[in-house]
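Re: that chain you flagged

S.,

Sorry for the slow reply, it's been a week of failed gels. I finally had a moment to sit down with the sequence you sent. For the record, here it is as I used it:
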Amino acid sequence: MGNPKAFLTINRKEAGYRPVLERIEDFGEVEQTLNTEDRMLQASRCMDCGVPFCHWACPVSNRMPEWQDALYKGKWQEAYEIVSATNNFPEFTGRVCPALCEKSCVLALQDMPVTIRENEAAIVERAFQEGYIKPNPPQKRTGKKVAVVGSGPAGLAAADMLNRKGHNVTVFEKDELSGGLLRLGIPDFKLNKKIIDRRIKLLEAEGIVFINNVEAGKDISTPELLKNFDALCLCIGAGKPRDLPVEGRELKGIHFALQLLRQQNRWVRGTEVPPKERIGIENKHVLVIGGGDTGSDCVGTSVRRKAASVTQIEILPMPPRKENPLTPWPLYPNVLKTSTSHQEGCTRRWSLATQRFVGNNGHLSGVEVVDTQTGVAEIIPADLVFLSMGFVHPVHEGLADELGLLYDTRGNIAVTTTSQTSVDKVFVAGDAHLGAGLVVRAIDSGRRAAQAIHAKITL
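Prediction finished late last night. Pasting the structure tokens below so you have them in one place:
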């Protein structure tokens, strides 16, 4: 540790965000960056604790104290080597991870944790800029072939790790471009898609084959996959959204959150959206049902699309603003989270359960809700509703059912051993097994699945 007392003299300094009135006019990334000197000073604040709770809290077990020290000393390449030893894609997590590590930082007890996430992003961007990151294909090939179905963070991590072992890896993606929800589920204002393109290009140069616009089990048959590959790794996500089957659900103007986000991300990229499929938002009153990150993404998208108003409701009570005794440090705190999208213009309300949708001539005009604490009902005017209440499990129809996979009580793909499904040669990683979760957890799951597959096919 270069400066053991830095945390006493240097305060936490965040990069901050672009001005609201500027950023709501485009879909560029909202987060700014610190200069090199400030970034290195922020790294010096790491206390190198005897028990690094940041490491304990991180799903991929990042060694934060080690790369913070290297960053503080200006050893950028060494810092990147430490980061990438446990995390395949720090450029993703450095942008979209909720930073479980920071919430477990000892300095979080004083609301001044080390800027771990921002430091991570700075390290990987410097590595790309300086050319530390270059294609590094394996020297030898094993001759074994593995199919990875799905190119989200779990699929990319599994493919990367298997390729490093020398196996021939083919990634099948049902959409037109690789990236999964990184590509079509997370708005560009949080994750510029050029960041994904850059990584995919690198993985291709290292020998991974990406086949897009091909749905496994449909465009390529299940028997064909089992015959042509030594192992399958299913990284198909938790694609079944939670619905709200109440009166009026059939009214026009009610959409799942991903219908908006996928359409918007395609539009930003320049893909033409058929007129009949376009969701018009301008001058509309928008209601987002669900208080999580995906709901927040719908808020930011609606603001940029010039909605007349945006309201977000949540069935649960408003969490505490500062500390929650139910989730004490070093646990991830269940407290009020205000995103950049919320800051851009949004009415937030809690303890509201949806009773029914109301409308005129087949079109939505409002949503009747009831306060779960007082029992008082009201109708919130709304032209559009985006259902953002999470995902229940992976899509069963198609590949999963054809393989005859077993599911757990929640409908996720069950495993008999680490990452191994009930069918020989078939493994699973990410949300399809864990349930909808964080990008960093999906990366860890993909790494673990790759380890299990490698052990299986090299027996």
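What I noticed first: The chain has 19 helices and 15 strands.

Talk soon,
D.
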